[in-house]
């Protein structure tokens, strides 16, 4: 899926929303393939270009990468930021889902 989105966004400006979404998707794929450090680098490079729900999604993926690297405090901080951004974007159900994920991390660690 990341490769397909990459193809769709070739030559597009960095401000194109799909470019940020591509980076989030690619970061998640890297994390799931065992490369959370590469995933974190990829998503971190795009966070300053994101806003609204996309920013929250990027922060959530950054949190997951931090968690996979064992950086639990950073993971919790990023996930808390994601929750705040979901709320500001009016995404109550995504905020609630991220809160459940954060609660699971607290009981696991």
What do you see in this structure?
The chain is globular. It has helices spanning 2-9, 17-32, 36-44, 52-68, 72-88, 92-108. The longest helix has 17 residues, at 52-68. It has 109 residues and is mainly α. Helix 1 (2-9) runs antiparallel to helix 2 (17-32) and helix 5 runs antiparallel to helix 6.
Strand content is under 5%
Main sheet record: none
Shape: globular
Distance between the termini: 32 Å
CA-atom Rg in angstroms: 14 Å
Helix percentage: over 70%
Low-confidence stretches: none
Present the secondary structure layout.
Elements: H1 2-9, H2 17-32, H3 36-44, H4 52-68, H5 72-88, H6 92-108
Helix pairs in contact: 1-2, 2-3, 2-4, 3-4, 4-5, 5-6
Question: In a nutshell, what does this entry contain?
Answer:
This protein is 77% helix and 0% strand. It is mostly helical.
Quick tags:
mainly alpha, 6 helices
């Amino acid at each position: 899926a990341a490769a397909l989105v990459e193809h769709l966004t070739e030559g597009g400006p960095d401000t194109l929303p799909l470019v940020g979404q591509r980076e989030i998707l690619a970061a998640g794929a890297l994390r799931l393939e065992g490369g959370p450090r590469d995933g974190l680098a990829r998503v971190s490079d795009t966070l300053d270009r994101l806003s609204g729900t996309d920013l929250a999604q990027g922060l959530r993926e950054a949190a997951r990468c931090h968690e996979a690297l064992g950086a639990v405090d950073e993971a919790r901080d990023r996930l808390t930021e994601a929750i705040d951004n979901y709320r500001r974007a009016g995404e109550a159900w995504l905020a609630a889902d991220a809160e459940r994920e954060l609660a699971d991390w607290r009981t696991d660690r």
